[in-house]
What does this fold into?
Amino acid sequence: MTQEMTIFVKPSMKLPDTKTHVNCFYVKSSSSDTLHTVSQSRTGRWWACSCLGWIRHKHCQHLDVNQIPGNYIRHEAQIASGK
It folds into this structure.
């Protein structure tokens, strides 16, 4: 059973959905001015990030900060406007 949660994202960081991903938004790197994209797969409902941590290990701090599991684990979340 998946538990649904709400992720609060600044409106300026929200991105449009794509053909393959929904709930897309930017997160700022903690070590540089780089913006990474976090998004949810439309079909598998798992979350991904564009950072090297996720690309290499399928887990990263950007998902952890938002309490989102990595490793292709299904996880439902709603995106809401936040500060």
The CA atoms of residues 21 and 41 lie 5 Å apart.
